[in-house]
Hints:
Layout: H1 3-58, H2 69-80, E1 89-93, E2 99-102, E3 122-128, E4 131-142, E5 145-154, H3 156-191, H4 193-206, H5 221-277, H6 282-314, E6 320-323, H7 324-334, E7 341-354, H8 356-373, E8 379-381, E9 387-389, E10 392-401, E11 404-411, H9 433-438, H10 445-455, E12 461-465, E13 469-476, E14 478-485
Parallel strand pairs: 7-10
Antiparallel strand pairs: 1-2, 1-5, 3-4, 4-5, 6-7, 7-14, 8-9, 10-11, 11-13, 12-13
Helix pairs in contact: 1-2, 1-3, 4-5, 5-6, 6-10, 7-8, 8-10
Amino acid sequence: MKFSIKLVLSTIIVLALALGFSGFYFVNYVFETSLEREVGQALDESSILSFAFETAALNVPLKYSVLPDSVVEEIASKLEMGGRSESRLLRIADEEKNVLYTSDGFTADEGLLPQTDQHTKSYRVILAGESYYVHTCVSINALDRILYLETMKDVTGVFTERAMGFSLYRKVTIIMLLTGMVIMLIIASLLTKPIRLLTKATKRMAAGDYAYRAKQISRDELGQLTRDFNGMANALEDTICKLEEEIEAREEFMGAFAHELKTPLTAIIGYADMLRSHKLDEEKSIMSANYIYTEGKRLEAMSFRLLDIIVAKQEEANLQEVPARELFVYLQEMFAEKKEMDIRFQYEEALVQVEPNLIKTVLVNLVDNACKASESGETVPEADGASTENVGLVEVTGEVVDDGYRVAVKDYGIGIPEEEQHKIVKAFYMVDKSRARSKNGAGLGLALCEEILKIHHSKLQIESRVGEGSCFSFILPAENRGNYEE
């Protein structure tokens, strides 16, 4: 059953109960008030009749010392005919509560007489045939006789009004319930519209339409639920996109990995087969062995880089304070024998929060890539703004900035096209594959750097223009100390 139908039915049930109890109480209250008024009038009329009887008895001739039964009947007959529109219904009984006079149509039993004495009045409401009456009984003191006067007052109209009241109220209640049901259906439809929109959005998303969003049509709790649902949908869509990108990247990685393995393995197997199956002269043998050695070293470098990336992804941050000078001195020693390159270092003293071995790996990769991208004879800028032919130039700088310590490696080499810059941190991606392979590259260095920097809560920033060079930088937490230049 739909929620809107449940809402309507529950409201109608509550409304029906409320109207039923309130209607019963109201009609019954009016009935009891009217009946109480009629009872009061019946008792008053009984008192008036008893007073009239006593007065009539006083007018009896003095020859009677005791009021005879015939006089009682005569007085009762006159009292019976004293009504305004119709005769009264009354009954007279003597001291022994034996009936002396009864009006035509007086059908009440004698059950009220035993309950009445000289000092009490009694009454009851009885059903006689199809009519209701107020049956009263009072005592009369007439000429030393104690008589009992009973009356019957027709109150059928009060009960008829009650029945009509209940009937009318039932009709009004049914009309109100039907009208209320229609109104509640409209209200329930409006109130549950956000839920229907959310249901529709859920089905669309379950069918694969992750870009679909539920329309917000209210600002209440359901509106907040819609906002939260759309927020969840946004997060889910982002997660799915990331998963799809990861799957795509993994597939590209496997394809590139298979390709990178196939190329050197083909060369190794080919030249090894040539050495095995042919008798070659010394020059061809050396050339074949050199190809085998070169491609084997490239496979070795690629396997080590892949292992480093796997380790870096599983590494947990174990940062410690290290002087920045220690990192730059390490680089100077590493590349001291690279005479064909002009590597300049300029840095500020500071304590950086790093894992030393991992950050050294990043720096070595960046400087090595910068050296490979630079070639002798390139035009490089001088301090005075002029340019001159020089050996390949690489600048390694470190400076304290507002949010940490910035390390940058800049070269003036071939540069990277703008559309390629966001791809170069992917494993096995190489802008110039032939150039990279000639230098035993496998496109894994920057991927390794990216993973290591993630551990340090940092990111590789790339600035490059084709023909003008590239600058790779990242920022680490640090404390300012001083300057150093070499």
